Amino acid sequence: MNSIAQIQPSELRERIEQGNVPLMIDVREPEEVAQGMIPGAVHIPLGQLAGRLDELDQDRETVFICRSGYRSERACEYLEQSGFDKVINLEGGMIAWSEDEA
Asked: Active-site residue among 66, 75, 79, 90?
């Protein structure tokens, strides 16, 4: 069962351009983030997420980002179990985001 909401890179990019920017959390490791992040995203490595839930707003739509979409989906599942209901996974992660730029 996979009930995690997904957003396509093109859809997220469109929303950012329109100024309708959701909270974006990049859960990749520091060395991955060093290669580039989506402008405006906040870096919280997946392993630190549990201890940093107070940095998130339960009432705000939050998009989770990783390299391929797998870890960010795990983050969304964890947050849903923790009572967050406005979590969205960036489908395909930064790989898809980069491909969408072309």
From this structure: 66
Contact by Cβ (8 Å): 38, 7:
no
Question: What letter would DSSP give residue 28?
Answer: S
Contact 96, 9 (CB under 8 A): yes
Which pLDDT does position 101 carry in this prediction?
Answer: 75
Residue type, 91: E
Q: Which amino acid is at 101?
A: E
What is the CATH T-level fold of the domain 23-101, as seen in this structure? Oxidized Rhodanese; domain 1 (3.40.250)
Active site residue 66: yes
Over range 58-71, report the average pLDDT.
96
**What are 19-63's pLDDT values in tens digits?**
999 999 999 999 999 999 999 999 999 999 999 999 999 999 999
**Residue ranges of domains in the chain:** 23-101
